[in-house]
Amino acid sequence: MKLLKQLDWRLIITLFMIFAFGIVILSSATHVNQTGNYLRLIKQSIAFALGIGMIILMLAFDYNFIGQYYKELYIASVVLLAIVLTPLGAVRGGARSTLDLGPLDLQTAELVKLTFILSYAKIVELKKGRMDKLKDIVRLLMYAAPIIGLLIAQPDLGTAIVFCCIIAAIIFTAGIDYKMLRKAIIVGVIALPIVYLCIDDYQQARITGFLHPEDTSIQGNYQVMQSNIAIGSGGLLGKGLFKGTQNQEDFLPIQDSDFIFAVVGEELGVVGMVALIGLFAYFLYRMLKIASESKDEYGTLVVVGVTGMFGYQIIQNIGMTVSLIPVTGVTLPFISYGGSSVLTSMANLGLVLNVCMRRKKINF
Question: Is residue 154 within 8 Å of 147, Cβ to Cβ?
Answer without folding.
Answer: no
